């Protein structure tokens, strides 16, 4: 356990959820939270008391006006609730903050209960006369905890899912599809990148996986979808240089030599004017760990909003798991898939292919390096290979194999490859 129990609170997130009780909008989010977040999830007992009162009103089908909330809270033993409500009324909850607040309050509450359960297990084990008694007590504590945590939150009736489906189909404004720069790719992956999905871009070194991923991030930001790029191999300036080459159509040679022509400076000035306010961020921390990426993404979504995350690249990310390398990589891919669902963002991850991939014209899923877990967790796997002529010369084309596509067909595509502009397409 990396966090002491007294530090397992999420103060900002708890205040956000409590402020939902007073808003005249966001009723759907409030009702979802009231159903799935327990009063015990709050480290601050005052918020827990308000939450219990609001739950009681909501369960009776009653509205939650402030007067009724105060009355219900007092009936449950709450005190000084008027002062607490006055502090909450100054907070303005935003829908974009909900996923992080919801997940963090639930996470901290679950961990606190787990810690308490393990403390009870320790006490009962010390008092037990036989090992079997201690083991039985441990099973009882963990079974009770498991029942409490799973009761009614994930399992839904098919009828309720059909209602949710109808709502989803008729509220398209709430669902984001982020087009890629390539129409032919969009046609195959259900219109573009989707939140909650994991996209793997596999290639051998120098075959375009970083370029394609950076193109995706820049294009998303240019269309007002906040994007965050984690770059282990390259520093922030180098990443920016590649994006400038693509966005301003300046040759990478000029940028590398730092010798921009007068025309290129003009191109850069025009590009900077429009791109300076892109919701695009780059993190070039060299020792990138999984826990750090998850923490940064949660904080970034809370502060700036977040739609697309690029992590360049998978095999350079620290797994923080003492296990064989294949299991480490599988753990990474599984965790990144979970992160995409938790934050409802598209996670794009370049990944290395095995050396044997060069022996074939088009790579396959079997060429994903170090783990079959990557294939299992990804929603879309795009495998890249630069196309060569019969004489072995580059053709200026990049072969893109959609080797896995949960929401479309498996197929081969061909895009223009313009490395002198750090651009695909």
Folded structure, characterized:
The chain has 425 residues and is α/β, with parallel strands linked by helices. The chain has two domains: 1-165, DNAb Helicase, Chain A, CATH 1.10.860; 176-424, P-loop containing nucleotide triphosphate hydrolases (Rossmann fold, 3-Layer(aba) Sandwich), CATH 3.40.50. The protein is 49% helix and 15% strand. The protein has helices at 11-19, 27-36, 45-59, 66-75, 81-88, 98-127, 131-150, 158-170, 183-188, 209-222, 236-248, 252-257, 262-275, 290-304, 325-343, 373-377; strands spanning 177-178, 193-194, 198-203, 227-231, 280-283, 308-312, 346-352, 380-388, 394-405, 411-418, 423-424. The protein has a nine-stranded mixed β-sheet, sandwiched between helices. The chain has a two-stranded antiparallel sheet with strand order 1-2. Helix 1 (11-19) packs across helix 6, helix 6 packs antiparallel against helix 7 and helix 14 packs parallel to helix 15 (325-343). The longest helix has 30 residues, at 98-127. The two termini are 47 Å apart.
Write the layout of secondary structure elements.
Blueprint: H1 11-19, H2 27-36, H3 45-59, H4 66-75, H5 81-88, H6 98-127, H7 131-150, H8 158-170, E1 177-178, H9 183-188, E2 193-194, E3 198-203, H10 209-222, E4 227-231, H11 236-248, H12 252-257, H13 262-275, E5 280-283, H14 290-304, E6 308-312, H15 325-343, E7 346-352, H16 373-377, E8 380-388, E9 394-405, E10 411-418, E11 423-424
Parallel strand pairs: 3-7, 3-8, 4-5, 4-6, 6-7
Antiparallel strand pairs: 1-2, 8-9, 9-10, 10-11
Helix pairs in contact: 1-6, 3-4, 6-7, 10-11, 14-15
């Amino acid at each position: 356990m990396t966090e002491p129990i007294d530090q397992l609170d999420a103060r900002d997130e708890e205040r956000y959820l409590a402020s939902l009780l007073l808003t005249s909008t966001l009723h759907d989010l409030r009702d979802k939270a009231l159903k799935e977040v327990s009063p015990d999830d709050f480290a601050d007992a005052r918020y827990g008391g308000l939450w219990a009162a609001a739950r009681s009103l909501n369960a009776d089908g009653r509205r939650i006006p402030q007067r009724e909330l105060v009355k219900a809270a007092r009936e449950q033993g709450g005190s000084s609730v008027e002062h607490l409500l006055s502090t909450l009324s100054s907070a303005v909850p935003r829908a974009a903050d909900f996923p992080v607040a919801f997940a963090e309050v639930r996470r901290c509450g679950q961990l606190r209960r787990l810690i308490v359960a393990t403390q009870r297990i320790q006490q009962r084990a010390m008092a037990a006369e036989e090992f079997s008694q201690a083991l039985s007590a441990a099973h009882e504590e963990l079974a009770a905890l498991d029942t409490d945590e799973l009761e009614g939150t994930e399992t839904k009736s098919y009828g309720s899912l059909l209602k949710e489906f109808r709502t989803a189909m008729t509220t398209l404004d709430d669902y984001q599809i982020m087009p890629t720069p390539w129409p032919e790719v969009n046609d195959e992956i259900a219109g573009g990148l989707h939140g909650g999905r994991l996209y793997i871009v596999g290639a051998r070194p120098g075959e375009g996986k970083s370029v394609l991923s950076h193109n995706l991030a820049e294009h998303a930001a240019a269309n007002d979808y906040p994007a965050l790029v984690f770059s282990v191999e390259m520093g922030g300036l180098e990443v920016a240089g590649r994006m400038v080459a693509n966005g301003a159509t300046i040759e990478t040679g000029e940028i590398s030599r730092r010798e921009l022509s007068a025309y290129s400076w003009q191109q850069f000035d025009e590009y900077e004017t429009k791109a300076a306010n892109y919701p695009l961020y780059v993190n070039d921390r060299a020792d990138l760990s999984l826990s750090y990426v998850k923490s940064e993404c949660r904080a970034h979504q809370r502060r700036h909003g977040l739609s697309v995350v690029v992590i360049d690249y998978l095999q350079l990310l620290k797994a923080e798991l003492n296990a064989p390398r294949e299991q480490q990589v599988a753990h990474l891919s599984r965790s990144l898939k979970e992160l995409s669902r938790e934050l409802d963002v598209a996670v794009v991850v370049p990944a290395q292919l095995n050396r044997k991939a060069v022996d074939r014209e088009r790579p396959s899923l079997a060429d994903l390096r170090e783990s079959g877990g990557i294939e299992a967790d990804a929603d879309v796997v795009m495998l890249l290979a630069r196309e060569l002529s019969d004489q072995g010369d580059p053709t200026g084309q990049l072969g893109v194999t959609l080797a896995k596509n949960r929401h479309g067909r498996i197929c081969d595509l061909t895009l223009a490859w313009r490395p002198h502009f750090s651009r695909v397409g």
